[in-house]
Fold these 3 entries.
Entry 1:
Amino acid sequence: MNLLDQWKDEYLSQDETYRNHVTKFVAFINNIEKANQPITITKEDLIESVGYYHRLGKIKTIKTMESHVESVKAFYKYIVGKGYADDIFNNTASFQEFKTFIINKYNLTGVKDKDFWEADMIIEILENLDDYFERTNYSELDSRSKKRFFKFLVLRLFIN
């Protein structure tokens, strides 16, 4: 296992909030063969990861791109705090301008006002729920986590 995957697993074992996008980012970094050379990862790699997932149809909207970038930022806050790597956001004067640059580069659109969720959003939710159920052993959960497990189960059934 490479360094970035180890750090990702360590991070996600403490906070699963950004599991989907952190996992996507690390997969992209693995794909460009920088996962064992984390000091070579730049914010340009983050921009390219958005482009990669945009071409795959996984990042279509501004909101999804912002979730991706915010997730990577939270991941970097963790690994910088641990002293594992330098912050790729250090020389970013304006985070909003950085996101605006990405929006313009990939011609991302805002979410349209609709009475229903986009199919890619539902698919992402279902994938995250399925991932959660695959890696979670109900018998090992504390009472609070068991309540969350049942809420996720009801949500999964409702969406189907």
Note: The chain has a mean pLDDT of 91.
Entry 2:
Amino acid sequence: MANTASFVLLFCVYATALPHPTSPGGLPPDNLQREIQTALRTGDAGPLLKEVTRLLDLRRLPSSGGLLDEPRRSLLCSTCSVGVAQIIQEVENGAAPEAIASQLTDLCVALGVATLNVCQHFFALAEPQLHWIILNRHVTGKDACGMLFVGFGCETDNPERVWEVSLPDTPKPPVQPPILPEPGSPVMKVLHLADTHFDPFYKPGSNAECDDVFYCCREESGPPERPEAAAGQWGDYRFCDAPKWLLQEMYSHIANTHQDIDFIVWTGDLIPHNLWNTSREGNLDVIRQAIQMVKDSFPGIPVFPAIGNHEAHPVNAFPQPYIENEFDISWLYDEISALWATWLPADVAASVTYSAFYSTPIKPGLRILSINTNYCYSFNWWLLLDDEDPASELAWMAQELQRAEDAGEKAFVVSHHPPGHRDCAKTWSHQYNRIVHRYESTIAGLFYGHTHKDHYMMFYDPDEPERAYHVGYVAQSQTPYHKLNPGYKVYTVDGDYQGSSYRVLDHENWIMDLDEANESDDPRVFLLYKAKEAYGMSDLTPSSWSDLIYVMNQPNSTVFETFYRHYTKAGRPLLAAGCDGECKRDLLCELLTSDNSDRSRCDSLGSS
């Protein structure tokens, strides 16, 4: 989730006040320039500056999901390009990080984007790293905006952002479609936990509609001004994360209900959404507590984790492993390596401490690859410094899959960000898809999180565009943040026997209804649906999932209505808001896209 976008865009607005290096025709309007200069001096925003902010709608920009109409997209990208160019010039001319952070804080408050508390702390955390990056890699405004805001339709013009991973020389073997098992064949059960976002400071009855807006339901949120604003006992639909007792109740239910779980995949984001108020030690404490809860709840069950973007401090900031200055991220990787050692063998420690990825066998004939997809996430500003296969992770991924192919193994690939997500860097996404396509017969399952919703993502053959060759499963969050019910997913997988496809055969999805839990103070976790039954599918092959999209694309599709209820985990606020024709098209487009560099398949979708 990217509340970061609102704050980063303030760099653009701020920068239009600075002297422009080009011809007079390229200058911002004089009166707007004067208004911003006054705002920086006095903290007061004039009418033109407020209008720019209103048009960009900075406060609500993150909830748009990157889906902007063309005039707003054009305004955002062009303003960003001009503005960031001025920020870069100021930094290169010797402006102090503290001065820039102070100016941005004043504007942030004056324009009503957030409170002084939020603005001040966010820029104090973010500015030093961005300052260092600008001084150590020459980037243009358009290049920076095209990388940071790829999810909002901005594009870089830097040819160096297009690169290619060298794959092993072994030719791709003939594709053998997986053979579905006979009825009664052995199966495995796999629990998928995602986006836990554990808040150890959640306080029932505190203000869920606090001034800080982007995060509430804590002691510092203050008392509610009306009864309806009070945070619920078991969590809240507003900008609040999961209290400890919610997670413990859900884990207890899972342990009692699903006693046949073979292993767990856990796709990251353990830290709450108070992104302006994090620290290294605070993040590590939350990670330790969250991991301990899972250890205590599922003793003896293997867990295969992946790292999320919120684990870093500042949020989203994952520098390359060769960064060994004060921004070195080994403080995080060393700790998670030690914590994950409960579940993982000692021989993966080197790759985890290097860059938080690993490969290890699960069973004879099946291994798992955990990928650090923060190297594709556009709000990881370290990609401005160097985005070419950071940590050589994709090259490593291809080599590990080649080893699996040579050994006759199947592989599960798990990570936090889905590769087709709008905020995944286009070249990284494309290269990831090249690897998945090359090793399609070796890969048995692809599992993601990040969106907090319950859905899937199709992989289509670039050489045979109508052939769906894989499906990636995106699991729902444990946190209710925001407008969602907490939930989890359990896969039924082709079992551990000679010749197993290890493919997902079905999945079931469970939720806790927050309205019901908070009203009765008696939380009930219940089955929302089973995939095959809910959608009338005979199997969960990629072609079946692909066909379902085009069934849902039909006007007034009742199947889409069912899917949307499941997608939102039956969260009352989102169901009440509904999903109109544009919403439906955008959602189906996400299902169709695993390669963010090519969204053309969405052109065939209807608008209603």
Note: The first strand starts at residue 187 and ends at 193.
Entry 3:
Amino acid sequence: MKGSMPSCIANISSLIYLNLLDIENMEGPIPSSIGNLSILQTLVLYDNSLNGEIPPSLGKIQSLTYLYLYSNFLTGNIPSELGNLSSLVDLDLSSNFLSGNIPSELGKLSSLKYLILDSNLLSGNIPFQLGELSSLDSLVLSDNQLNGSIPISFGSLPSIRGIYLSLNNLQGNLFLNVFENLTRLNSLDLSYNELTVIIKPDWVPTIYFDGLYLASCNIGGIVPPFLSTQYRLSELDLSNNSLFGNIPDWLGMLPSLGSLNLSYNNLQGHVPSSLIIRDLLTIDLHSNMLQGALPFSSVPTSNMELLDLSQNRFTGFISMDIGNLLPAIRFLSFSANDLSGDIPSSVGLLQSLEVLDLSNNKLFGKIPSSITNCSSLTRLNLANTGLMGEIPYHMGMLSELSSLHLDGNMLKGNLPSSLKNCSSLQILDLANNLFSGNIPSWLGQFSELMILVLRSNKFEGHIPHQLSNLSSLNVLDISHNGLIGYIPPQLAALKSMRNSTVGSSHDNDGSSYYYKEEIQVFNKGLEMVYVSSVMLLITCIDLSVNNLTGDIPLVIGNLNSLHTLNLSDNGLTGEIPRSFGLLTELESLDLSNNKLHGILATKRNWRRRFIHVLDEMAISLLSRLTNR
């Protein structure tokens, strides 16, 4: 079925159950006549492309028990009339674009067990009347724009099992013991608000959590002692809370603990042995001040899938037996520590590994050829580790690879032709090495490549015109090499630099776990570090410090989404193209140390400004030309 939701359905007065789940291309509004289905009990319209507002007429269907409208494009307010649905048990309006306040009338739904409104644009205070929902089992309001304080009435929900309020703008002080009378509560998520959660040091709760998520809740102090009583706790997130002191030994003795996140704190000392011998599923301790030898270096952990110890002060070697110690690992990061030694060849035994980050350490030796056996790898970061030698010839066996960071090493030789098999590459950063030979033309085959950085190597020969086939490319940096010849006019065909909008980040592409990418790009004369969330919001071409000659192609002016263009320190001649006036998004332009002449014309909003340029004169437009 295609098209809009058929209004004729409202004429079937005997209809009790209506399921239009995932109908291909079903769009348009929900007809207001749907309120005529007076004995309807179940309405399933999720996973479609419905838009417009939720019809208030739904509030007339007194028999309605289950209402599922999630994952559509619905807008407008939640109708207060839904508060008349006295039989409603399950209300799911999540993953839409609903706005305005949560109607207080929803507090009248005495039969409601599940209220799920997450991933919308809802704002205002949470109505205290929701604390009167005596049958409520799960309250999910995450990922909205709600503000104000958490209603004290939430401490009186007798049937509640799960409260999820993360990713809002909720404020104020909240004593965690306000929930201590909720004897059925087993999952609480208050993360990423503006709350200050206060936990009394002598509090001994009478409730037992399965999942407790208090990231960015301004807790401070040591790891809260009350957690030692939580024998049912399976998931704990206390990240970004300015916690200090040591990780307590008792944390590793919690019998049900399977996932632990203490990242972005100020924790010190060693990782307790009690935690090491536990076979947890995920451990995230990154961005602390932990020290000593790497834990998990002698005891096998057969179930662990994520281990992030990055940005700490660990020293010593990576265990030569790591491939046997972490057989199920999928995400492994030891980056930004003080590790030394070789990358163990046993890493090739990690068949489930998707993300490997060993960057910013003091490793040495070669990239082990066994790494090509990690066939599930999507992200590989070995940047700034002191590696030498060549890229393993069979690196192309990593066909699922979406990002490869080898920058800041002493790698040499030609790029192995097997890399052409990595057809899913989005980021390739080989800057600051000793690679030589020609830039291979087969790089133009990577249709998904967004970032290509070959800066500061020993590449020679011509710029291959096949790079113009990189339709997704946002950053091209091949500066500081020995390239010769003309700038290929075909580069003007770079599609992502010709459109008014550029790509969005791909934080989760190809991996089951979030991974923050970083690249270094020279912009406005400075080395800028861009992270995942913004790196694809820039467009850049840097061909500086080579031996390029000839005229600048006029058609470069067609790259109207370009933010940075650096052609400095070459042997370019001729007139500065007047077409540069079409580069209306340009923020930084450097043509210095060439043999150019002429006039640089900029045009924006019917205005024209002329900037005279003499031979060998630097041009650096450090603010948007549109504002000049």
Note: Confidence is low (pLDDT under 50) at residues 502-511, 603-628.
